[in-house]
Amino acid sequence: MFRKILVASTLTFGLLAGQAASAADSRPLVTLDMAKRMIAACEDLAAKEGWRMNIAVVDRGADLIAFHRMNDAFLGSVGIAINKAKTSANFPFSTRVVEQIGYGKDGEPPRVPGIVQVEGIIAFAGGLPIKVGDHHVGGIGVSGASADQDEVCAQAGLDAVAADLK
């Protein structure tokens, strides 16, 4: 009797795990090729503008896929770029929106003032979520110039793979 229950349980678990794996396999993801193209587009724009950037791309689990530090980019911005990418991978909005949530916008009080104190959360522009349709699949973070310029550069990265994000 115990063997029959054990076999049935094992088969049931195996079927459920297989279904979960199939569902996970069909979800869109950020590939290394996409990450490299995002970084290249951001670097091209930065070079034209005279910005020295650190550029990070992470997956939906906020794990680093690719990172690039341009020549003479600030060493202190390495971690900022990575954390901007991670922040936008962990939340479905830009780090600019995190800033507005944590500090307020247009004179309004902050909605969640404590969010700016959470380790690893970046609350200023330069991090953007990567979305494929309705699926939030990662984040890109850029640091090295002004926050607005960082965000423009991150957007250039997203624009470079826009066809893949549909």
Strand content: 15-25%
Annotated CATH homologous superfamily of the largest domain: Haem-degrading domain
Shape annotation? globular
Spatial order of the strands in the main sheet? 2-1-4-3
Uncertain runs with pLDDT below 50, 5 residues or more? 5-17
Number of domains: 2
Tell me the CATH topology of the largest domain: Beta-Lactamase
Summing up helix and strand content along with how strands pair, one would put the structural category as alpha+beta
Mean pLDDT: 88
- Characterize the biggest β-sheet: 4 strands, antiparallel
Secondary structure: number of strands: 4
Q: Specify the number of helices.
A: 5
**Topology as H/E string?**
HHEEHHEEH
CATH architecture of the largest domain: 2-Layer Sandwich
Q: Distance between termini?
A: 52 Å
Task: Characterize this entry briefly.
The chain is of the alpha+beta class and 166 residues long.
Relevant terms:
16% strand; four-stranded antiparallel sheet; alpha+beta; 166 residues; Beta-Lactamase
Report on the structure:
By secondary structure, the chain is an alpha+beta fold. The chain folds into two domains: 1-27; 31-165, Beta-Lactamase (2-Layer Sandwich). The chain has five helices and four strands. It is globular. The chain starts with a helix and ends in a 6-residue tail after the last helix.
